[in-house]
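thread: overnight batch results

M.L. [08:02]
morning all. the overnight job finished for the chain we discussed friday. pasting input first so we're all looking at the same thing
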Amino acid sequence: MENPVIQLNDVHFSWSSHVAEIININQLTIAQGEHLFIQGSSGSGKTTLLNILTGINKPNFGSVQVLDVELNNLSSTQLDQFRVDHLGVIFQQFNLLPYLTLLENVQLPCWFSDKRMSRIDDLHQTSVNLLQELQIPKNLFGKSVNTLSVGQQQRVAVARALIGSPEIIIADEPTSALDTENRLKFLELLFYEADQQKSTIIFVSHDPYLAKYFSRVVEMSDINQVDLI
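M.L. [08:03]
and the structure it wrote out:
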């Protein structure tokens, strides 16, 4: 596999030495520009895996390399900066800030990352362009996210993840609140925007309907040697 952006080797994770392992992955390699779909039922370890990939959880042992950086060697402060510099995350509950406007929510990562800020010429215009491409009406840009529908909040969360062209986009069950038609529209927009900036997509869901739209599908039960179900 050429140009891996993520490489996991012999990764084990449990909450303490007194409880059973949640994750036991011999190897997982993700290539640059891939659209990867990781599927599995609730409780199969999907979210824990994402937390390991983003450095939120450190494995008990094993190697987690993201963009040629060994995450286990970074301090908490370094991990925070690494995430904001290189990862765009779309959370299941979106995690938008109600006291910020739509534009401010989208711009937020660039306030904390000189690296992402350096990739754009004009923060305001880039934010506007992303929201327009994601079909958010311009008259909403200055309003609180609390005024939006669920689908609109989701697209704002996508814009926030994409701004500043992070190398990796991670999506944790982001379509769970949408119907079938809007799930497909969401994927089309996500793929288009990520491909424009050559970002890798790691998309986690328990919904097998979505798998056919991805170039690569991985079952948690195939890579995680722990039987959690």
